[in-house]
Amino acid sequence: MMKQPRRTASKSKAAPEIRLILGVLQLLLTARPPRSSNLIVMVLAFLILFGATVILPADLLSDEKPPLLPPVNFTVTVTGLAQVLLRWEPSPDQERRSIKLGYHVKINGPQEDDYETRNTKSSRETILHKGFSASVQTIPWEGHTIPPSSWVSAELSAPAGAPGTSAVNLTCTANTVASDRTRSRQYRVSLRCTWLAGEASPEDTRYFLYYRYGSQTEECREYGQDASGRNVAGWFPATSIDGQGRGSLAVRVNGSSSRAAIRPLDRLFALHAIDQVNPPLNVTADIEGSRLSIRWDKPVSAFPTHCFDYEVEIYNARKGYLQVEKMRTQEFTSAVHDISKYSIRVRAAVSSVCRTAGPWSEWTQPVVMGSDEQKAWTEWLLIVLTAAICFLFVFSLTCRSFRCRLWATLFPPVPAPKSHIKDFIVTINYEKSGSGDTEVEVISYVDAPELEVLDDFVF
Ligand SMILES: *[C@@H]1O[C@H](CO)[C@@H](O)[C@H](O)[C@H]1NC(C)=O
Ligand SMILES: *[C@@H]1O[C@H](CO)[C@@H](O)[C@H](O)[C@H]1NC(C)=O
Ligand SMILES: *[C@@H]1O[C@H](CO)[C@@H](O)[C@H](O)[C@H]1NC(C)=O
Fold first, then answer.
1. Residue 408, domain member (yes or no)
2. Tens digit of pLDDT for each residue in 44-71?
3. Which ligand is nearest to the CA of 171?
4. With a threshold of 0.70, does the pTM exceed it?
5. Could you give the CA distance from residue 202 to residue 209 in angstroms, rounded to a whole number?
């Protein structure tokens, strides 16, 4: 090999340097007899020698050392759904006694990544339907003065399948459910996924859904179909997903058909992003005087109480005003000055205190508080009163004119000249004609001698 002679050459070159330092030291020590006053010189010499041994070899290595040797037997193997293991061995020809070795791993596809490690294996989560490719090189772990090795690569080819047969638009949501069956786990997590059939997938395509969480992989047993009878939704009532699940969930939709090879589709989901948090429980609201207090309970969730953010929405129906408050506690009080109907809803989200913040839950069913009936009631009373007064006013005029029995009973008749009946009819006619002079007419009537009677009645 070419590299071997270069390494030995550098070694033989390092020797004269050290011999030179030793020579200088000898000269210093022999020039004057070693006396206590010469201690400084000795310390100085020692420091020079020490410094030389530390600094010099590194200097020499940077110029003279050959690059490291690349790892051998680099392999990539599929260890699970959307999971691979990268493995390599240090070159047996690499001299290791003086250098700490590390490795620089580069993922070339499907998603580029780049990291350094001292291990000789590395497990990766990655989608695999587009194939996978990675490279690794040997690097010095401490100090970067030695050139790294050349790269060695390995790859997995994309799984077979006709273009356009793969499922598309795969989405999933996880949801925590209170567990009634098992006593070991208080909560279980269900998973629901939907997708669309690939545009080139034959009618007889059967899609299958799998998920992997940690080391557990499960196949779906409950599917929903599209119009052509192809599976386009899958439902896992209970999964191995942890109720406080962090990290990622791997999902695969593959399939089979008698007419074409169906391409699989992989997706990695961040659990916090697909976790559909349940809405809060038992929302109650109370108005006491001018205080509106709202309370609720934590949603069904494996997360403890302190892990939630809440949003309270109060809708003032009279003003058409929407108030939204964000909080950590499970109650909220607000001053209310209006007699109004309030519609209250609450929603929850796992807070960043406990996990990367995810989406909000659905709103709770609105709780309706207070009423605008009181206002309606007073309005109605006003209308009824006005109507009653008007009616009685007209009634009094009409009846008195025609001498109703009721009127006669209530108010003894007052004798009046006939001419006044005519006056009154004229008044009525004026009112009907809508001339706008009703007031004048009324006043003219008021001038009549029966003024006292009218006064008595109306007021
Ligand atoms: C590399 O693989 C070959 C064949 O599998 C094996 O004989 C050899 O020992 C391996 N080398 C190292 C360094 O593990
Ligand atoms: C499916 O996804 C593509 C792009 O990813 C988007 O353009 C399309 O609207 C989606 N189709 C449906 C039905 O959601
Ligand atoms: C689909 O993927 C699962 C999990 O990787 C595998 O066990 C199964 O054989 C695949 N099915 C087809 C039809 O490719």
1. no
2. 555 555 554 544 444 444 455 678 899 9
3. 2
4. no
5. 18
